[in-house]
Amino acid sequence: MEPVTYNLIGAGLIVIGAGIGLGQIGGKAMEGIARQPEAAGKIQTAMIIVAALLEGLAFGALFLGK
Amino acid sequence: MKIVQQSFKFLALAVLMFFSSSISAFNVGGDGGQVSGKQEVEEYIVHHLKDSHDFNLFSYTDDSGERKHFGVALPVILWSSEGLVTFMSSEFHHDDNGQVVVEKDGLKFTKIHSKIYELEKGAAAVSFDADHHATNASKVLDFSITKSVVGILLIGLLMLFWFSRLAKQYKKKQIPTGFGRILEPLVLYVRDEIARPNIGEKHYRKFTGYLLTVFFFIWILNLAGLTPLGFNVTGQLAVTACLAIFTLIIYTVSGNKDYWMHILWMPGVPIFVKPILALIELVGAFIIKPFSLLVRLFANISAGHIVLMSLIAIMFTLKESLGVVGATSLSFVLSFFLLLIELLVAFLQAYIFTMLSALFIGMAVAEHDHEHDHDNEITSDVEDVRGDFI
Amino acid sequence: METLLNDFSPGLFVVSTILMLALIALMVKFAWKPILASLSEREEGIQGALDAAEKAKREMANLQADNQRLLQEARLERETMLKEARELKSKMIADAEAEAKTQANKMIAQAQEAITSEKKAAMAELKSHVAGLSIEIAEKVVRNELSNKDKQLELVESMLGEATLN
Question: Nearest-CA distance from A52 to chain B in Å?
Fold first, then answer.
């Protein structure tokens, strides 16, 4: 296989990982909001921060491979 | 009813904006005439994502087959091997492949993929190797007023104009009127939702100015990137790196004793773990944090532009299989909704950048509980001594 | 990574750093400082107004309570005054009554005394009058019936007896 294909496979793996992570974050945040609707604002802020950190990691990995 | 009317207006505006951007997007600084094939679309997108040396609004090919460009040439300022060299970007004649060589002060320059190269002495034209790298030319330090610099200047002046007017309004009355009514809640939002909770009541005042500037700078430039002007300022690594390094400098400089102690000599862990933790913390504070900041913003905006332009390109790439009407309407619908998402992303990225900056600064200036205990001890001691004396 | 580094333009980095520094400085000086100052001033103003309103409300309540208290006090005072007046009135009446009674008793006693003394005087006068009369009678009788000694004696005797009976 050509190196470009390896890159694409790596990118796919990163995206799968990031997708699982984001799903976890989002799902747990929803659960939390459903349990405690009055804390929705705080949960949302925390969720966005964690999602942003994950996103930074994923993008970092993607661009390292590019 | 009013809300419905307003949202309709907003939608109309968005459609207009999208439509004009879809027209202009494929004409910015183009060099090869009409774009149709997949390869050309890819090249075009890559070209758009890069900075450009002239502010080209649109180009077209007239009936006689001549390529016409409509836009403004910008000054090129270079720090070459023999000092400062300046000329207008129009001297490149919209060439981007090293075909045109500009001679100035006895030095020869050419532009390849939005980068200006200085030719070696005696070379008349650029020669390329197999990977399309120039063999007889080297990059020069390029301080040109590029399109991104124009964008920064424009948005900076716009921000200065808007917010100094808002500041003047407060002198006359307590409640702003007109556009100030839109700006005020945003300022309050950044102050009360980003700066205050993340940095803390005691220190947030010092950093609010920086956070507000960064927030509005990023947000407005993100939005400007979605307009037909075709700015891609926040999608330039240099710009996001500059912002991230500002944040790095601010939280490094304002870090208190406690912050440094937690980085260099983490309390409460076994002694042999401390050096390892210090290494991790140092890497985290000086490399990972700013790197994640700069890459996140850059990648989000670049990715947004790539996807949006690819969806617009469906018009050309699927013309054969879906027909003109089918391809155009598919492209229109898809890119319209993506544009709406991008509007959200534009805000979200500005929010996240500011939020994380505030968070990092907050970590650096935070006062920990055991510090307070210590303080209390000292004051109680002082009280005891005073009690003995009196 | 290679492409990224290739895309990175150090010139743009320098230019944007300078521009951003200038922008931050200008924005802080001409926009954020005055805006944030007036915003916090306004917030403090609102807080102050709210506090003042709260204070005024409390003062109002205090005032009302004061008024209520004053009213209550006045009512109490009036009542005590009325009570005192009533007491005074009855006391005065009782006093007057008592005084009148003693006065009357005194007058009665005086009158009785006067009566007894008058009676005594009258009795004495009567006695002396009776004695004078009886002496006159006795003179007359004596002049008439001095010759008849026995008859004289008898007469005196009878008259004396009559006198003591009176």
Answer: 7
CA pair distance B42, B56, nearest whole angstrom: 19
Best A14, A53, A57 residue to mutate vs chain B (most B CBs within 10 Å): A53
Q: Does A63 touch chain C (CB under 8 A)?
A: yes
Looking at the structure, do residues B152 and B115 belong to the same domain, yes or no? Answer: no
* Residues making up chain A, counted from first to last: 66
The boundaries of the domain holding residue B354 are: 148-370
pTM: 0.74
Flag whether residue A59 sits within 8 Å of chain B, measured between CB atoms. yes
pLDDT tens-digit series, residues B110-156 = 888 788 888 877 777 777 777 777 777 778 888 888 889 999 999 99
Does A14-65 carry CATH code 1.20.20.10? yes
Name the residue among A52, A60, A62 with its Cβ closest to that of B352. A52
Same domain for B214 and B93: no
| Contact between B335 and B17 (Cβ < 8 Å) | no
Interface predicted TM-score (ipTM): 0.81
Name the stretches of chain B with pLDDT < 50. Answer: 1, 21-32, 371-379, 385, 389-390
Rounded to a whole number, what is the distance in Å from the CA of C61 to chain B's nearest CA?
32
Q: CA nearest B195: which of B375, B71, B356?
A: B356
CA atoms of B170 and B173, how far apart (whole Å): 5
Looking at the structure, do residues B177 and B101 belong to the same domain, yes or no? no
